[in-house]
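Thought: the user wants the 3D structure for the chain below. I'll pass the sequence to the structure tool as-is, report back what it returns, then summarize two notable features.
Action: structure_tool
Action Input:
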Amino acid sequence: MIKKLFLPANRVMWISTGVIWLVFCSGILGILFGNRDLFLQLTPLNLLLCFVLLLINLNDFNKRVITTVVLVYVFGLIVEIVGVQTGLIFGSYEYGDNLGSKFVGVPILIGANWVSLTFMTGAVSALIFPKRMILAALLGSVLMVLIDLCIEPVAPLFDYWTFESGTAPFSNYLGWFIAALPLQFLYHNLVADRPQAFANNLLLLHVLFFGTFAVLLT
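Observation:
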């Protein structure tokens, strides 16, 4: 079962999976024992890499997938802009410098990160509920919230973002779920081909990466 879940299905996926394991493990070691500032400044490259590799590992990159990518990117960016500028949806917060160049206070790559999170959690939830879209969408949304739960304790330490109250309020997690749900329905409706093993590995690496620092640094 473990092999089926995490073992890549083809050469491209093997290479892609090897690359992300190398990058995430190097990041953990580099931040803990190397030049922490340098590795954190490379975060935008990591976000872009995850985004590109997820798309590369889709065998059928068709108009429906492109539509999903564009809509999720734009939706994620708009939600974040509204959140930063008004304090609605997630609570009062602002972005730091380690997520790259910003537009209206929001990193440009944050939309790509919404795509990556939606696609990898959607792929995992589709595996668990292959013929039950509503349950798959709900699970995918919960998984996105759980990933955010892992990231939140670490985010201010890495200069990703900071909440005015010091910690993420409950409205942040509720806002994540509400924002994630329509994206999950969109994904499960339009994306038929899923990068299953790659998505599983990427989700695991996100949990390992941020979970490690949540335990060691907070």
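Final Answer: Structure generated. The mean pLDDT is 92. The chain has one domain: 2-217.
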